[in-house]
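Cross-check.
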Amino acid sequence: MAALVITYRLIDFPLFPYGTAMPRSPDPDKGAGGNAAPPPTAPTQQEQPSIERALKAAGYVSWEEIGIEDDGPYWDIDDARRPDKTRWDVKLPQGSCEILSQEADR
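Predicted model, tokenized:
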């Protein structure tokens, strides 16, 4: 009786169905396509309270995401909501919490 032997080899990228492999991006900060933007940088625990105070002082009651975007040294707050349920995209300069711009989300 013959024994069935299965061997595996270790490779540096994950295998997908039928033995195909997902191509690696030349830039590890980007997705498989090589052109995806890196995610925004979240505020630290020390920065978060001052950003939230500035948003509340401007009349916002909640928001989705706070991050630093690539196109400027400012905080970008997505979907900040006012009491009347309108949504706004808000920008605050990094290091100072004065509202730079407010744009209504449609």
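DSSP finds one helix and four strands in the chain. The CA atoms of residues 45 and 51 lie 11 Å apart. Passed to J.P. for a second look.
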